[in-house]
Structure formats: C-alpha cells, structure tokens
Amino acid sequence: MRNCVASSTRPDLAMLAPLATAAAHDAALPAPATALTVQALAYRRVAPSRDGHAVPLDDTARAIGALACAERERVCGAIGADDYVLSSTILSMLLMNDSPQHRVFARALAGANDYGPDWMTCSYECAGWGYVLRRTLATAAETGPRTLLLQIVDIDVHGYTYWHGNPAWGRSGFGVCTLLIDVGREATPSVLADAAPPANAVVRLGRDIRGFCAARPGVRAALPFFPATSRRALLASVGTTPLLPDGHGLFGHAFGSDPWLSVLLAHRDGDTPRRAAVCSLALNGYYAIADVAFAPDALLSLDSEG
Q: In 3D, which of 68, 154, 147 has the Cα closest to residue 115?
C-alpha cells in the first residue's frame, strides 16, 4: 500500500449497495481464475457544457480535478492504493502535460490529502484502462499482489462539438468512473490488449470477445456502447456470447467507461455478475478485453449527473 492513511473499513455510503444475488446462469461458475478482483466501481455522470459557452480553462481544470478527487474520496475514503492511475480519451492534453493548466488540475485532483496519480495516460483512448491493467499485472508478477486505483475521466474541456457527438459513435456521455481493483499474479492471462486497422477493428474485437468468453463458460461480455450500425456489426462478430446490458440509449458513448457502466446497469437491474469480460475499442484501433471478478462485498454506485 502507498504511504498514506488506510481505513480498516469502507466508507459508510448509502449510495453504494452490496452485490445483488447473481443470476442463475452465473451460479454454476467455478471460483474465478482471474487475477483481477473489483472491490469498488462507481460512475458519476457529468452534464455536457453548452456549445460556445466560454469558461476560463484554469477554472475548468480546477473543477474537473476537484470532481475526480471528490469521487475518489466518496468511493475509496482514505484507502491508499499501490498504484493510482488516471486514463482518458478526450481530456485536454493541456491537463495531461506539464502546462500551467495541468498543474491547476493536478493540485485539485490531489485534494487536501495531497494524493495525486502516479501517472496519467490518453495514448490508448477508450482502451486505456486495459493497458493500465496489463501494466499493473506485469508489475504484480514481480512484486506480488497490488491494489490499483483507476479513474477514467472523460469530460469535454474546450466545448468542442466533435466531442459532443459524431457519426463514429453517436451521442457522447461525459463522466468520471472510479475503480478499486485487487491485482494478483496471473495463472492464465486476464487481459487481452491488442490493436487492429480501424477499418476492421470492430470485427476483430468481436471475434476476440467470442473466443475470450468461450474459454470462460458463463462469463458475460460488457461491450462498448455504439450506435445501431456499429453495434450490429459487433453483435454479428460476437455470435452467441452472453451479454450484459447496452447503455447507448441512456448514456450515449461514454468512452472508456462504457463496459463498466454496462456492469452497473446489470447491478441496477438486480443481475450483478460475479464475473464479466469488460471490453473497449478505441477509434484508432486499440482494444482491450479483461476478465474481472467482483468481490462478494464489492461496492457499486451509479450516480446521477454532477
């Protein structure tokens, strides 16, 4: 654990409900063979800014950092993780490099406890969380079990209409996804992170999901949220793979948070999986599939707009 105050109990939060009884098709699953166990998963939706509404960038950077900090503390309390990483698709590069706006963002994100991320990444876009998991698994193979605090932050900073929606993914959804994950040593690979030419990446992802889940009977896939045409192509490729709910109609495309929202939607409906194959695809062809288990006392929260 990092050198910070650790709490012996999880924060007492009414909005974080324990896992519901798993569905019958999950009941016969053997003990998870994955090295990834989710202890907490939360998503806070953020309303899009008004097009053309100018806000000083420093103010926006400070507000987003403060929101992510508040979500981290709401979900994890004073728990300190071995690794703390922020991943994004659309967050401005000014907030990710050593610019003055980055420093404003980083101070707000660290908060009163001065707890900032070890690193940030936007290189792999929506699939970034998968590459973070792969790197953390590689570290755990050398050091032993670790705890990862991962935040997926996708909020438009500049008011670009492109990020609010376009034909590639339909309407966009903005928000902060916070995960606390126990990462152990792998007996079998828990993450598939790969890339394909963008023109056939949807089909490649679908085929890999089908094979990934076929090797894990009973595990349902949480797919990225795409508009109808792209989803039809993806569904044709995954075949009869069992699926968790699609949230495009509710959230639009929420970038790297899509599959985690799919899990939360199942939880909301009283059908929380014990284990899932979460999947994301980036516009540039990177994709990720991860086999994750959910702790029996995992905390899950799907919050209203902040």
A: 68
